[in-house]
């Protein structure tokens, strides 16, 4: 079997040709020879800068077959440009360490959780999303172990979310309009002040394009999301984008202990942006946003919070033995300890076991 590898009319040298365990390269004339067994064989031709080609060839006995393969140039990869250091540069030219999450990773995490950024940011190494209020689900961003107050949150290089990401801010940012997320790990105080001692998270929005996206999501934990993104280029200089959404989540007690593991909320947001691109690299964008949310968590309706040692009330169904009945009346004087789900409860047990 002889393969003639060409790029247009020119022979392509040093192209790799393989079939199973047999491997060779093309010579100066762009030809490669392989001794293949009779039957249907699979050939792969690859060369740096060109798209790999896969062929299915039927090899006949005592017949020397010659096949010509045309190699097509591979499209150049679009360079990743980051703006977290205030000057747009290619990622490989940045003097500081910058992690970038973009492309399919953004799209995948948006489909998994379109209501907020928690799932998206967890995918970046060195970044931890730490709960700050378990009852309401609030979270904070910690970079390289430093507290969340030392992390600066930016949108297109500006502190549109209040700079620091404490409280509920992280849970109120829909990721549908994100093009990429940039993270500077380590001190960036020279650029953004003392609030960036741990690092910087820069959320880069998508540029205007003539397309629309609608995302509908329903979770198995009674959560519903509907988010829409609209983009339009009016001419070579002007364009706009609009993102809006509504979200609903019921309070859910997963383990049945009377405490909401998932807080309930209802939220709606709307944010338009106008873009202008001028000459000599000048650009301008203006944005305004509105958000309304009602969030509730903590103890479920009709449930009683567990009582710890020293408190004065407790549910009777925690008692697993008749003689361990909990009683906190003043006349009861005998006390005992009972362990329930790993927690030591202080109980009062009367002599006649009657509460």
Characterize the structure shown.
Helix content is 5%, strand content 42%. With 355 residues, it is mostly beta strands. The chain folds into 4 domains: 2-70, Sandwich (Immunoglobulin-like); 83-205, TonB-dependent receptor, plug domain (Ferric Hydroxamate Uptake Protein, Chain A, domain 1, Beta Complex); 211-293, no CATH class; 316-348, no CATH class. Strands 17, 18, 19, 20, 21 and 22 form a 6-stranded antiparallel sheet that branches. Strands 1, 2, 5 and 8 form a 4-stranded mixed sheet that branches. The longest helix has 9 residues, at 104-112. It starts with a strand and ends in a 7-residue tail after the last strand.
What's the topology here?
Elements: E1 2-7, E2 10-11, E3 16-19, E4 22-25, E5 31-33, E6 39-46, E7 53-59, E8 66-70, E9 81-82, E10 89-90, E11 98-102, H1 104-112, H2 118-122, E12 127-133, E13 138-143, E14 151-155, E15 178-185, H3 189-192, E16 199-205, E17 211-218, E18 223-233, E19 238-249, E20 264-277, E21 283-287, E22 290-296, E23 335-340, E24 343-348
Parallel strand pairs: 1-8, 14-16
Antiparallel strand pairs: 1-2, 1-5, 3-4, 3-6, 6-7, 9-10, 11-15, 12-13, 15-16, 17-18, 18-19, 19-20, 20-21, 20-22, 23-24
